[in-house]
Amino acid sequence: MPRVPDKTGGEGSKRVLAVDVGGTHVKFKLSPGSERREFDSDSKLSAAAMVAKVRKMTTDWTYDVVSVGFPGPVAGNRPVAEPHNLGKGWRGFDFAKAFGRPVRVVNDAAMQAIGSYQGGRMLFLGLGTGLGSAMILDGVVEPMELAHLTWRKGKSYEELLGLSALKKAGKKKWRKRVADAVGELVAALEPDYVILGGGNAEKLKSLPPLARRGENDNAFIGGFRLWERGFGRGSD
Question: Residue 53: exposed, middle, or buried by beta-carbon count in 10 A (0-12, 13-18, 19+)?
Answer without folding.
Answer: middle
